[in-house]
Amino acid sequence: MSQERVAHDVKKWLDQYKTYEPNDFEMMYDDWITQNFEQIDPGMKEKFFSKLDDWFFHTHAFLQGSSFQNDARERILTVGRAISSDINKIEDMKHELTIDQLTYIAEQHKARGRLYSFTQGGLTGTGGWLLLGIDFPLMMIMNIRSVQLIGLTFGHEMNHPYEMMISLKVFHAATLPKRMQARAWRELMDELDNQEHPFIYEGNDQLTNERWLDQPIKQGLKSLFILMFRKKIFQGLPFISIAIGAYSNYHLTKRVTDFALRFYQYRHLQLERSRSDVGSGT
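Now predict its structure.
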């Protein structure tokens, strides 16, 4: 059965995080981050991460109200209706389509997201200060949008507060270092298990903390390397800088979209199991 195969794929994918052992450098790095942040005033830390969380919430709301996101939403429904004429709204996707059909549609969003990131990273690699300055927020916006589109494909309406928080927590978990993602996955599972209302989010609404700073630090290093190699020009173009920008952004989006797809696949399998339990009277 396709559900059993997908469940096996999700388990195999998840095992790489459960069995991952951080090396000595990663442990030293984590200790360094912890020690340095312990020296910062707790009030300042709380304010900083609160402002960062607010930016993510506003970004999510902006994307949901944008015309290109609404167009993408309609395209998802159009593709869904081409498979099943019983689809009238986003929620119908998870009821009318099989997990293979949903995965196929989501894979198209993954591919487009990686292409957009690759192109944007390549442009950033030309070394212009404006492009370097907007690279990080633009990458965050593009990857949040990719998570939203995968969630929509699996029939979860992103305008609901609960789904908004879940999608942002999926994005947050996907952008954490690999050594921290098993714990982030368990926290996401707890979120699903503790859901009491289908629309209202009642859990912890904090997103970012010291664990997430690995991503901005990597971004800073990427920008530094781009600046270092932007004068290495071949045939009028800084190919090394372009390659650094394109690969880095592509790799990040691949990680985010892979994580998001596995999460929503797992969630769909849970839904199918609950339907089976209800149907069997257990």
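Residues 2-27+66-280 form one domain.
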